[in-house]
Amino acid sequence: MSSYDDAVSVSHLTKDYGVFRLEDVSMTVPKGTVMGLIGENGAGKSTFLRCLLGLAHPDAGEIRILGMDAAGQRREVLARTAVVLDECPFHERMTPRMVGVVLGGACPGWDETEFRTLLEELELPADKTVKEFSRGMKMKLSMAAALARHPQVLLLDEATSGLDPVVRDHLLDKLRDFISDGERAVILSSHITSDLEKLADYVTYLHRGRVTAQGAKDELLESYGRLACTRAELAEVDPALLAGTRIGQFQCEALVRDKAAFRRRYPGLPVDPASLEDIMVFTAGRDER
Predict the structure, then answer these.
(1) Domain 6-219 - what CATH class?
(2) For the whole model, what pTM was predicted?
């Protein structure tokens, strides 16, 4: 059951396309937090977001956004939800000023003053066409348009991919500001795990349509570890303690599920901290052993 403190609550979501199946995905995103959604291409991240937006109809499960049923109360949900995709949705001949006029007439709650403030803050010229914008400028425009609606839930699908570090950091700062009142939430799907390590409070890792790892980001990073050892040393390790391995000609590497438990059992094998990228890469290739 969804709590009043949850911005998004997903229970046992399943969507079957025949060639691909998103299966039994559950997730809770409290207000005032960022959920990072990671996974390789084709893992189901975009399908998951499409189900949240009502663009794909789930075969099973329940989605509640701000306590509302996402299917039965879709109009109310969409009025409180904004999305930023990896491609700018605005026609190349439009200017930001024109975007404001169009969205002002189409979006309930549109805040033109906030939009203009964001354009200035993000250093976007109001009368320059989208065609003349760099990719980073287009993403800033998409973000400004989304935030000017004052949504309570913001969904981003690879919105920071392909951007230089300066632009990415600027957008991450805007997302921190967005959730700072404790009443709003973000779900950020991204291949750039370093961004999620900076921003996310929680992480869900999708692999082949299933949740493979999930939890508070800091707890996941504290729990997992990275082991480098010889082939002989790896052969002595209990496979149940490992989430994935990579066998090299001269060295073996493995992702350890629980650093503390592993160190107690194998005190002679050094375990280093793992990153979110390690968790994703090793889990995706865990059948290599």
Answers:
(1) alpha beta
(2) 0.90
